[in-house]
């Protein structure tokens, strides 16, 4: 009888084990995302204003009417470097306002942008005050703001171009 019980245990479907493992992975990913975004604002987007690298004054209010990606990043961040092509491509079709967090002077960030072929709008956050106001504790951090100034989606860490485009598209429908 002992042999028969052992044999039944080995014949259990493997799909159950796979389903449990996949479920655990999703649970961990969801829990980490919830932990990382715990201090980030929800609802109405906080004020955001300053001068772009080129010197023009800008405010989040200037982007009203269409969804906008507010993207916090840093020149020293390897994940941000991996993601910058996604942001550049999304900026061709959607409004993007990026914030370079503790990345050096305006000249240093401008040089970084030129060297990497990046041309989306950048606010400089040398002191980190904008990041604190938005609850950003890590980079990259992305906020999708709808046409009415409401935060619809947020993410910390690498986000695919398709993921950003989909969230921006959804924000256009949600407002």
Automatic annotation (TrEMBL):
- Which molecular function GO terms apply here? antioxidant activity; oxidoreductase activity
**Which Pfam families does the record associate with it?**
AhpC-TSA
Q: Which residues form the Thioredoxin domain?
A: 39-175
InterPro entries, per database record: AhpC/TSA, Thioredoxin-like_sf, Thioredoxin_domain, Thioredoxin_ResA/DsbE_sf
Q: What Gene3D superfamilies does this protein's entry cite? A: Glutaredoxin
Q: What is this protein called?
A: Protein disulfide oxidoreductase
What is the organism field in this record? Answer: Thiolapillus brandeum
């Amino acid at each position: 009888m002992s042999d028969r019980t052992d044999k039944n245990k080995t014949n259990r479907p493997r799909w159950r084990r796979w389903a449990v493992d996949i479920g655990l992975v999703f649970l961990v990913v969801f829990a980490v995302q919830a932990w990382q975004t715990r201090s980030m604002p929800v609802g109405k987007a906080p004020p955001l204003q300053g001068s772009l690298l080129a010197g023009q004054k800008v405010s989040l209010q200037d982007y009203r009417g269409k969804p906008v990606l507010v993207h916090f990043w840093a020149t020293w961040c390897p994940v941000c470097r991996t993601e910058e092509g996604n942001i550049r491509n999304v900026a061709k079709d959607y409004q993007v306002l990026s914030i370079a967090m503790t990345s050096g002077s305006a000249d240093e960030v401008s040089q970084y942008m030129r060297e990497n072929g990046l041309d989306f709008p950048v606010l400089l956050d040398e002191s980190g005050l904008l990041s604190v106001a938005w609850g950003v504790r890590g980079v990259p951090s992305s906020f999708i703001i709808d046409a009415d100034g409401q935060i619809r989606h947020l993410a910390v860490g690498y986000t695919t171009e398709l993921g950003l485009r989909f969230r921006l598209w959804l924000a256009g429908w949600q407002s």
